[in-house]
Design brief:
Blueprint: E1 9-12, E2 16-20, E3 25-29, E4 34-38, H1 40-46, H2 54-60, H3 66-78, E5 82-85, E6 106-111, H4 119-128, E7 133-138, H5 144-151, E8 161-167, H6 173-182, E9 186-192, E10 198-200, E11 211-213, H7 235-241, E12 251-254, E13 260-261, H8 278-282, H9 285-289, E14 316-319, E15 322-325, E16 331-332, E17 337-338, H10 343-346
Parallel strand pairs: 6-7, 6-12, 7-8, 8-9, 9-11
Antiparallel strand pairs: 1-5, 2-3, 3-4, 10-11, 12-13, 14-15, 16-17
């Protein structure tokens, strides 16, 4: 009779998913919302556990790593992410599938004083598409009165959450809280270009949304960067990322000039929103092409352990039959290093740079 680990198979718990990178691997624990960094070779071993027993895996590597495999698998058992079994058929691999009834999940709108489009009409068009999340970036100072007027159509919409980035204009906090009082769908209110960072907590009957002041400016066409603090392990994100670009999928943006784009920093546009409908844009094959360019298809990204978590909104270009992101990533998967100071270091105690609305999927 087989005992202990002799002749056993190894399994990760259903909430744990391994990802192999060029220099480092990862176990995404979606139940604990944790990322466990592991050697790349261990991630490779874990990719084989549904094909082979532990002893057969050792055979694959000509028994060069027997002690290391035993030690690491024992550690995973100790950490509560895996276990041994003599009944492998009872623990098949988890199939990750993804689908959404929403034609558009999230949108970003840039607003300036020179913006020649109707924000209210854009909100109504997004509502018609079933949009769940909206981020509005006010790039110049606007009065609370003007902001409330622009957001009026959102009150009766199907939007689940609204993120507002408002440029500092000297208005008092109680006036800003009026925005939240009048539209309960507002879940984030950041005042940018505001000097010293601080957080103002709401008074009684002023809602539950804090006002976050940040010295960081929000600029026209501002790209979003990959950053470790934004990586969240969840089953829907991991499933979607295997088939779609999670930073661009089911998203649409209106830039400050009113042009419809996949993202505000992208070069290509799909008409002006005052002349072309958002629905027509998002239903076009060219627009949806970017949705399907997931990180497994993109050079360098395909070798990154964070590829199923990354929310980089960079445009993707084709060159010589290969896809590349236009924005240079701060993370190098081949050396497992971040080239620049991370946002957490830059904005310690400050509000985060605006991340695209709709990335609150869990």
């Amino acid at each position: 009779m087989k005992t202990g680990v002799q002749g056993a198979y190894f399994r990760l718990y259903n909430a744990c998913f391994p990802v192999k990178g060029a220099a480092m691997g990862l176990i995404c624990d979606v139940q604990r919302k944790e990322l466990l960094h592991i050697p790349s070779l261990l991630a490779e071993v874990l990719e084989k556990i549904y094909q082979y027993s532990v002893e057969e895996i050792k055979d694959v590597y000509d028994h060069q790593y027997d002690k290391g495999i035993d030690a690491y698998l024992a550690k995973l058992v100790e950490l509560g992410v895996g276990f041994y079994t003599h009944n492998p058929e009872a623990f098949p691999a988890v199939e990750l599938s993804w689908g959404s009834p929403l034609e558009v999940y999230a949108a970003v709108i840039e607003v300036e004083s020179v913006s020649n489009y109707d924000v209210g009409d854009v909100i109504r068009q997004l509502d018609d598409l079933g949009c769940a999340g909206l981020q509005v970036r006010f790039l110049e100072p606007f009065s609370v009165e003007d902001i409330c007027r622009m957001l009026q159509p959102a009150k009766d919409s199907r939007l689940k959450f609204i993120e507002l980035y408002i440029r500092e204009n000297g208005e008092l906090e109680e006036q800003l809280f009026r925005i939240v009082k009048e539209n309960r769908r507002v879940t984030t209110l950041v005042v940018h270009s505001a000097g010293e960072p601080r957080i103002v907590f709401p008074e009684k009957n002023a809602g539950s949304v804090n006002i976050v002041y940040t010295g960081q400016p929000v600029r026209r066409g501002q790209p979003d960067m990959a950053r470790l603090e934004n990586f969240v392990a969840s089953t829907p994100i991991l499933a979607e990322a295997r088939h779609f670009n999670i930073a661009l999928n089911r998203k649409v943006c209106i830039d400050a000039e009113g042009f419809i784009r996949n993202y505000v920093s992208h070069e290509a546009h799909f008409g002006h929103v005052s002349q072309a409908s958002i629905r027509a844009a998002v239903e076009s094959p060219a627009f949806r092409e970017k949705w399907r360019l997931h990180n497994d298809l993109i050079e360098q990204c395909r070798d990154c352990q964070y590829r199923y978590l990354c929310l980089s909104n960079s445009d993707v270009v084709e060159n010589g039959g290969k896809y590349h992101k236009k924005e240079i990533c701060d993370f190098d998967p081949y050396t497992n290093t971040w080239h620049k100071q991370t946002l957490r270091d830059q904005l310690r105690g400050d509000a985060q740079n605006p991340a695209l609305a709709g990335d609150k999927r869990e």
